[in-house]
Specification:
This protein has 14 helices and 17 strands. The protein is α/β, with parallel strands linked by helices. The chain folds into 2 domains: about 160 residues, Aspartate Aminotransferase, domain 1, CATH 3.90.1150; about 250 residues, Type I PLP-dependent aspartate aminotransferase-like (Major domain) (Aspartate Aminotransferase, domain 2), CATH 3.40.640.10. Helix 3 runs parallel beside helix 10, helix 6 runs parallel beside helix 7 and helix 13 crosses helix 14.
């Protein structure tokens, strides 16, 4: 039996939150709707651990959904932010840190010659779409089912029936006329992209994709897929947009583009480039970025864009990740954890697929393979919910959705890996009874 953990304070605060926020939260997945139970409220976090207001301590595999590759509250980052905050938090004017951070990003992403910082990944994706449309004079978009690019209307769509189909609004409030401009295709399916381009020749502005899908759980590109997208885009005069909000600076110093050797026309970034503070960015060639105001006719701006605190957080993160960085060590730990989870599940007779790349992994309750959103959707979400609850009770905080990645940080120590393995073995065993 797992030990009981006090929850009174979190439950009381959640009751108050339900009266104030939709679902009691400021972002839907935090409500635990897909895994059951109620969310806990965080009091503090340091390194690999997070502590709730009832005093419960958890090994954290969420890591704020990706930006905390150095763990919670690293001393150097906190010191730098404290010092910078004493000089002001926002100016509405340029600061030196944004130039330095831009130089660091451009140095590691050869496809980016100029960049524009925003305050969120959604804002960056919205701007990348606008830039692609401005550059091509076209309106239609192609995206992959299950890839998430923020909550902008044009990309908050799902697939209809058929191989390549006009998008259907995936949220109330998205006009059908907007959703219809987006064609949704399966991830890892080049034939579907070809069919879409053939159906509407010379009408597509961009193909948008997470080069490594991490919002349907972690799903890897099959050999030749990214190269094929680049080839199809060039042939059709379409811009290839890589959403590297998650993969940027996480799976290699130059993200998926470096890891797979495929360059994007426009790149979307976020998370790690803010070191845990709100940030986003989009970048491209000098020619494309020359269309952005004030140099060109495509308007985009933001009051807090390039603010000194977020830029300081990003600088500290990228300095710590300077090549060769901790990437090989992180991958070695993630490989061992993934192998251990497979072994532990098999010992209890539970079929799982554990997908891993760099410091990312996802455990699917499925027999596999998992190559796209439809196959990810076939995983046993009820089993994942039971597993999530069992792990949380044992002091391990996993992303509260089957369709999210686990995030490893440099702060995770061997003791964290061993404790996670022990909790997983006990949880698998309890599920198999």
């Amino acid at each position: 039996m797992s030990p009981e953990r006090p929850t009174d304070r979190s439950r009381a605060l959640f009751a108050r939150a339900l009266e104030l926020f939709p679902g009691g939260v400021d972002s839907p997945v935090r409500a635990f709707k897909s895994v059951g139970g109620e969310p806990f409220f965080v009091a503090s976090a340091r390194g690999s651990r997070i502590t709730d207001i009832d005093g419960n301590d958890y090994i954290d595999w969420v890591m704020s959904w990706g930006p905390l590759i150095l763990g919670h509250a690293p001393a150097a980052l906190i010191s730098a932010l404290q010092a910078r905050a004493t000089l002001g938090t926002s100016y509405g004017a340029p600061c030196p840190e944004e130039v330095r951070l831009a130089e660091a990003v451009v140095a590691r992403f050869p496809s980016i010659q100029k960049i524009r910082f925003t305050s969120s990944g959604t804002e960056a994706a919205m701007s990348a779409v606008r830039l692609a449309r401005a550059a091509t004079g076209r309106s239609r978009l192609i995206k992959c089912d299950g890839c998430y690019h923020g909550h902008l209307d044009a990309l908050l769509v799902r697939a209809g029936s058929g191989l390549a189909t006009q998008g259907l609004a995936d949220s109330a409030g998205v006009p059908a006329s907007v959703a219809e401009l987006t064609t949704v295709v399966p991830y890892n399916d080049l034939k579907a992209v070809e069919a879409a381009l053939h159906a509407h020749p010379s009408e597509y502005a961009a193909i948008l994709v997470e080069p490594v899908a991490a919002n349907m759980g972690l799903v890897l590109p099959e050999p030749g897929y990214l190269e094929g997208l680049a080839r199809l885009a060039r042939a059709a005069g379409v811009l290839l947009v890589f959403d590297e909000v998650i993969t940027g600076f996480r799976i290699s110093p130059g993200g998926a583009q470096e890891r797979y050797g495929v360059a994007a026309d426009i790149t979307i970034l976020g998370k790690i480039i803010g070191g845990g503070l709100p940030v986003g960015a989009y970048g491209a060639s000098r020619e494309l970025m020359g269309l952005v105001a004030p140099d060109g006719p495509m308007y985009q701006g933001g009051t807090l864009s390039g603010n000194p605190l977020a830029m300081t957080g990003g600088l500290l993160s990228l300095e710590a990740l300077a090549p060769p960085g901790p990437y090989a060590a992180l991958e070695a730990v993630a490989l061992d954890l993934a192998a251990g989870l497979r072994e532990d599940a098999a010992a209890s007779g539970i079929p799982v697929v554990v997908t891993q790349l760099g410091s990312l992994l996802t455990l699917f309750f499925a027999r596999g393979p998992i190559r796209n959103y439809a196959e990810a959707g076939g995983a046993d979400r009820g089993a994942f919910a039971r597993f999530h609850q069992a792990m949380l009770t044992r002091g391990v905080f996993l992303p509260p959705s089957q369709f999210e990645a686990w995030f490893l940080s440099t702060a995770h120590q061997p003791v964290d890996i061993e404790a996670t393995r022990i909790a997983a073995r006990e949880s698998f065993a309890a599920m198999s009874v």
